[in-house]
């Protein structure tokens, strides 16, 4: 089969047209899946994992068709012919290959109203936002759930994780503020943001400072890091949470100006087929939508 191979020394990305194809005999506990599309996470091609011989193929988002179910005894949730998608494990080969593998815990049925490319754009980004909001921030995925958390800030709201942060927080009934560039303001508004700030024109810390009682946030989902993450700490209200997918927030905590009880949270996203199934439902009910910027052939 064809597969993309990434190596770090020297730094190369090549197409192997004769790469070994995974088989049920070699992977009895896994589904064998024909890859229809994969996605590369920002920065992925600089990750150190390809130094490990078994992790040379990039692309941890997967959308494809099941060729065969696990050969281990027992009932399996998916069957040959099912259209599925997943975030697959970071400790194994990625999915930039014609035939890939997926564990049942990773898989969910692909949204019926999403293309292969749209489906492949979803898992890592959506699950990152899902875990941040519904696991670490304790929001509930229902506007009728009386969420105690009411104000959410999403930085880089037009980026991969930001898109899902805005949509999922909106679906949870939160008041959502997003930051982005000038050209993306209308787009972020269309995702469900109540207020959109152009980071080139408005410093979010200054904006919050104009009326801190009203504008401070219960939850901040930071997708940028650096100075933005430093400022985020001062934008959280008492007992709030600063959750970052860009870098650990605690080393960026200022020594002054942070409200009492603000917590910094850092996590590495995990595969979660059950949560991805909830995302499928949201997409099929047109409560959320995937967004694709560009599509490339494997070559």
Provide structural commentary.
By secondary structure, this protein is an alpha/beta fold. It has two domains: 3-120 and 271-284, Quinone Oxidoreductase, Chain A, domain 1, CATH 3.90.180.10; 125-266, Rossmann fold (3-Layer(aba) Sandwich). It is 23% helix and 25% strand. The protein has helices at 116-120, 123-136, 160-171, 185-190, 204-209, 212-215, 226-235, 273-284, and strands at residues 3-8, 11-16, 31-39, 61-68, 83-87, 99-102, 107-109, 151-154, 175-180, 195-198, 217-222, 236-244, 263-266. The strands form three sheets. Strands 10-9-8-11-12-13 form a six-stranded parallel β-sheet, with helices on both faces. β8 (151-154), α3 (160-171) and β9 form a beta-alpha-beta unit. α2 (123-136) crosses α3. It starts with a strand and ends in a 15-residue tail after the last helix. The mean pLDDT is 94. GO terms for molecular function: oxidoreductase activity. This is Alcohol dehydrogenase. Residues 1-22 are annotated as: Disordered.
Brief characterization of the structure:
This protein has 299 residues and is α/β, with parallel strands linked by helices.
Sheet with the most strands, sense and barrel status = 6 strands, parallel
CATH topology of the largest domain: Rossmann fold
Poorly predicted regions are none
- The CATH architecture of the largest domain is 3-Layer(aba) Sandwich
The number of distinct β-strands equals: 13
Range of helix content = 10-25%
Tell the overall outline.
globular
What name goes with the CATH superfamily of the largest domain?
NAD(P)-binding Rossmann-like Domain
Question: Which quaternary structure do these chains form?
Answer: single chain
Radius of gyration: 20 Å
Number of domain units: 2
Structural class of the helices, strands and pairings? alpha/beta
Q: Write the H/E string, N to C.
A: EEEEEEEHHEHEHEHHEHEEH
Biased composition (Basic and acidic residues): 1-10
Region (Disordered): 1-22
GO cellular component, one term: mitochondrion
Pfam families: ADH_zinc_N (PF00107)
């Amino acid at each position: 089969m064809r597969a993309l191979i990434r190596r770090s020394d020297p730094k190369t990305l090549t197409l192997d047209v004769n790469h070994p194809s995974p088989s049920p005999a070699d992977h009895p506990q896994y589904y064998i899946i024909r890859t229809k599309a994969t996605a590369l996470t920002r920065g992925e091609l600089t990750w150190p994992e390809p130094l490990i011989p078994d992790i040379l193929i990039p692309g941890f988002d997967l959308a494809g068709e099941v060729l065969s179910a696990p050969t281990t005894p027992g009932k399996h949730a998916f069957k040959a012919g099912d259209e599925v998608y997943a975030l697959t494990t970071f400790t194994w080969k990625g999915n930039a290959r014609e035939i890939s593998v997926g564990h049942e815990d990773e898989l969910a049925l692909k949204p019926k109203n999403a293309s292969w490319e749209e489906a492949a754009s979803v898992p890592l980004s959506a699950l990152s936002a899902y875990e941040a909001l519904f696991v670490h921030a304790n929001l509930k995925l229902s506007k009728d759930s009386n969420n105690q958390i009411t104000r959410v800030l999403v930085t880089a709201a037009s980026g991969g994780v930001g898109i899902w942060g805005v949509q999922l927080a909106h679906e949870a009934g939160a008041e959502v503020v997003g930051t982005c560039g000038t050209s993306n303001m209308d787009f972020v508004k269309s995702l469900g943001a109540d207020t959109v700030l152009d980071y080139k024109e408005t410093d979010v810390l200054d904006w919050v400072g104009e009326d801190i009682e009203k504008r401070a946030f219960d939850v901040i989902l930071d997708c940028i890091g650096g100075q933005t993450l430093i400022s985020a700490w001062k934008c959280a209200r008492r007992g709030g949470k600063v959750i970052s997918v860009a870098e650990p927030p605690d080393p960026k905590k200022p020594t002054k100006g942070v409200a009492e009880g603000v917590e910094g949270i850092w996590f590495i996203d995990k595969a979660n087929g059950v949560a991805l199934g909830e995302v499928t439902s949201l997409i099929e009910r047109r409560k959320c939508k995937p967004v694709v910027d560009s599509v490339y052939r494997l070559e």
